[in-house]
Amino acid sequence: MAKAKAKKTTVKSYGVDEVKRYLGALHEDHKAALKMVGEQYFDIKKELDSHTEMIGQLMIDVSEIKYELTQKVNRVEFARLEKRVLKLENSRR
C-alpha cells in the first residue's frame, strides 16, 4: 500500500489595506441590510397601528350594540304586551 501523502496547506496573508477594504465592504452591506430592516419595521408598525385603531372602533361598536340590545324587548314579551293592549282597547270600546 502506498502511504498517503500529507497535503501542504498554504496560508495566505493579507495586507492591512486589503483587510480594511474587505471590512469596509462588509460594513456597507451590513448598513444597507439594517436600513432595509428598519424600513420594513416602520411599514409593519404603521399597519399594526391602523389595525389597532380599527379593532378599538369595533370594540366600541360592539359595546354600543350590546347596550342597545339590553334595552329592547324580546319577541315573546312584545307579543304579550301587544295582546294586553288589544284587550285594553277592546274593553274601552
Query: Major beta sheet, specifics?
Result: none
Mean pLDDT: 88
- Our measurement of the CA-to-CA distance between the termini, rounded to an integer number of angstroms, reads 128 Å
As a percent range, the share of strand residues is under 5%
Model regions low in confidence, pLDDT < 50 over at least 5 residues: none
Class computed from helices, strands and strand pairing:
mainly alpha
Annotation field: number of helices = 2
Outline: rod-shaped
Helix content: over 70%
Number of strands: 0
Query: From N to C, what is the helix and strand string?
Result: HH
Radius of gyration: 40 Å
List keywords for this structure.
93 residues; mainly alpha; 2 helices; 80% helix
Draw up the topology in text.
Blueprint: H1 16-71, H2 75-92
In a few lines, what is going on in this structure?
With 93 residues, the protein is mostly helical.
Describe it for me?
With 93 residues, this protein is an all-alpha fold. Helix content is 80%, strand content 0%. The chain has two helices and no strands. It has helices at 16-71, 75-92. It is rod-shaped, with a radius of gyration of 40 Å. The N and C termini lie far apart (128 Å). The mean pLDDT is 88.
